[in-house]
Amino acid sequence: MRDVYQSLLTALGAVLALWLILGFWPLSVGSRVALSLLVTLVCGVMLWHQNRAYRTRIQAIRDIEDDSLPPEDFHGAVILVCGDNTALFANGSRHRETRQGWYLWVKDAEQLPLLVQHLCQVRPALVTQISTMLAVLPECHTSNDDFTQSLRGWQRAVVQCRAALGRLPPLWTITWVSPPAACRDAEPVWFSTVSNRAGIEVYRPGQGNQPLTDWTRETEAGERLSRLSQGLWLDSLLAWQAIAINSVLSVRQGELPALKPCAQGVCLVPVNGVANNLWQQHIAAITALQPDIAVSAEPLPLPEQLLPVLPRRRGVSRRMVFWRYAGLLGSCFLALAMLASWVNNQRLIRNVGDHLALYHHLTGTPTAPKLRAQQRLRADGALLDDWQRRGEPVRYRLGLYQGLRLVPAVEAAVNNWAPPPPPPPVIKKIVQGPQTLRLDSMSLFSSGKYDLKPGSTKLLINSLVGIKARPGWLIVVAGHTDNTGNPGLNQTLSLKRAEAVRNWMRDTGDVPESCFAVQGYGEGRPLATNDTPEGRALNRRVEISLVPQANACQVPDKTPASSQDDDASLHNGE
Questions:
Q1: Phi/psi at 161 (nearest 5 deg)?
Q2: Which value, in Å, is the radius of gyration of the alpha carbons in the chain?
Q3: What are phi and psi of 79, to 5 degrees?
Q4: pLDDT at 140
Q5: Do residues 464 and 544 touch, judged by C-beta distance below 8 A?
Q6: Buried b (16+ CB within 10 A) or exposed e, 413-444
Q7: d(C-alpha 301, C-alpha 299), whole Å
Q8: CA 304/CA 263 separation, integer angstroms
Q9: What is the pLDDT of residue 554?
């Protein structure tokens, strides 16, 4: 479950980051693409790393089967037994269950934080019931240095559990040591100290805890000497604990913080030890006599009497942690989105304000600059009006949109000035120079001929309707050919064709021959290149021009044309 929540948080963070990049922040297209790819890559790497860490954790705790874990509805304490824990469990067993607690065997220091993570994943309801118990058997160690290194390793493992639990798990230490030889047949005796209580208490089955002084003063028959011996044994053990255990855990070592056990217990019970162990060395240093090694086939007793005094905290489930982080991500997203919206609105105000300032600065003389500024304001007004009707883009929202207060200023500026009307057109009388009408020779004549085709009359009438004889104007008819054939023949052909057109106009329109001038240019004045069929077709033509010339076209007994007729005859040139 924990890994699922982590993956969901990673995906949620990636979605919100992409939303910020693509929907809010004013970035260029290239920057948006680059940042989007970066966020996607980082999200993919994080998901891959989380999946790999999950697989590694499952592989590392393969010795812990789910059958060894407490059920979801277990209400007692969940104790992770660390240190010298082998003697507390039967062969092949990985847990011990009692009425008040569930004791789980931890293989080594490296497995402890992984086991805590696994419990948080598969038993999230039991997270608040987890504590770590450091089991100490001084009779199983022979080297002080090795014992200290082992304590440091367990200290580091307990600190690493904070990443999964969100806090340091409660730590308590229990020491089992063999009693004096005279007391080995008696019932196990438990001594305990609790951080929030003063003094040492002795647990007696059926009677509960009582202060150590009261227990020592009791004078029951046959027990006074035994209790005195056990008291001296306890004093020696407490002195050894202060040097070997408390001085190690309570001192900060590099990055490892100091650990203060919430409770400590001592049990005097026969323990299977090794020769020349730490406890024998300690007693020999005090009395010069080594105690004998005890033999026991039973698992060591569990400290049930200390379970009620363990601190209980209100736990935080994985779901609560997920919603906390989701709320934090949402808050960060909202803050950044509002900042981006504010930046976008400020840019909008600045851009429209610059357009307004430029518009008001221009006087309208000349008109073009102010007209361009007005067009920009019209575009701004159209955009703001469209946003007002359809809704502004998301990047301007979140209650920070400033476009509405810009609309009146833009509309007032656009409406308070209009460009002056253009001046009325000046009507000028156009004095026409030579007017030229071009007729396609192939439409009038057959190839190489200069006699008009039978069907050319209609074309001549439509084309020459504006050509009228009048005093002072000379009708010039010029023939042209392409460069096909002999130049001399082309010259003659062009002249003959011009004469044929002149004769038709003279005879049809009853125009005196003195009004005409006939010219034949042959191939000498081409309009286009003669290298292409299209160009040669343009060059084969007959041109008719009206050229002003004094004393030209004087028709006897005719009144000279008025200026109004003259203007009418120039209609084609206007």
A1: -70, -15
A2: 57
A3: -110, 125
A4: 92
A5: yes
A6: bbeeeeeeeeeeeeeeeeebeebebebebeeb
A7: 6
A8: 13
A9: 66
- Tell me the two tokens of residue 339: 């900042």
pLDDT of residue 354: 92
Q: How far is CA 168 from the centre of its chain?
A: 35
Q: Look at residue 468 in the predicted model and tell me its pLDDT.
A: 65
DSSP strand pairing (95-97 vs 101-105): antiparallel
**Torsion angles phi and psi, residue 364, rounded to 5:** 95, 0
Beta strands 201-204 and 208-211: pairing type? Answer: antiparallel
Distances 235 to 212, 217, 230, 573 between C-alpha atoms, Å:
11, 16, 9, 134
Q: What is the 3-state secondary structure (H, E, C) of 215-247?
A: HHHCCCCCCHHHHHHHHHHHHHHHHHHHHHHHH
Using 70 as the pLDDT threshold, list the residues of the chain that sit under it: 1-3, 57-66, 182, 196, 205-207, 218-223, 225, 312-318, 425-435, 463-472, 550, 554-574
pLDDT score, position 109:
92
Give residue 425's Cα distance to chain centre.
62
User: What pLDDT was estimated at residue 415?
Assistant: 85
Q: Which pLDDT value is given to residue 266? A: 92
Cα(245)–Cα(271) distance, integer angstroms:
19
